Amino acid sequence: MANHMNTADTATTEDVVEVLNDLLENSRDGEYGFRACAEEVDSPQLKQVFLSRSAECAKAAGELVQLIRRFGGSPDKGGTVTGAMHRGWVHVKGSVGANSALSMLEECERGEDAAVARYRKALKADLPVDVRAAIQQQAEGAKRNHDQIKQLRDQMCNK
To answer: Where is the composition biased (Basic and acidic residues) (predicted)?
Structure first.
């Protein structure tokens, strides 16, 4: 019964699992989105960046799945509808060649903006210390991803 009681000081197990599942969807969106960009872009350098970012998102997703299970939750199976639309957009942009590399970087930056915002929201929740530490570490990774993608986009715009 204690799991269902919610005070200002403690989140319920269900609250923790909900936050973790939201971030899991976010990580999967990043994993699939970066992989889609890697498949579409011609630049070997960008392909490697996108594949590396995809692998980092997959690793984060794996960590979140473990935490969700530790709290007795069921990990959500997929990403978000918005993430699926993003991946579809990436494929369309790539197939029509709409300034492909720059378009991919712009779309990835939008995706990382959303990821950073979701981590910020999660960190406002009242979470157990170890969960907060894991989320903080992942949030820092999302911010690094965002900053790297933004820097690459800026370089491409200035060519």
So the answer is: 141-153
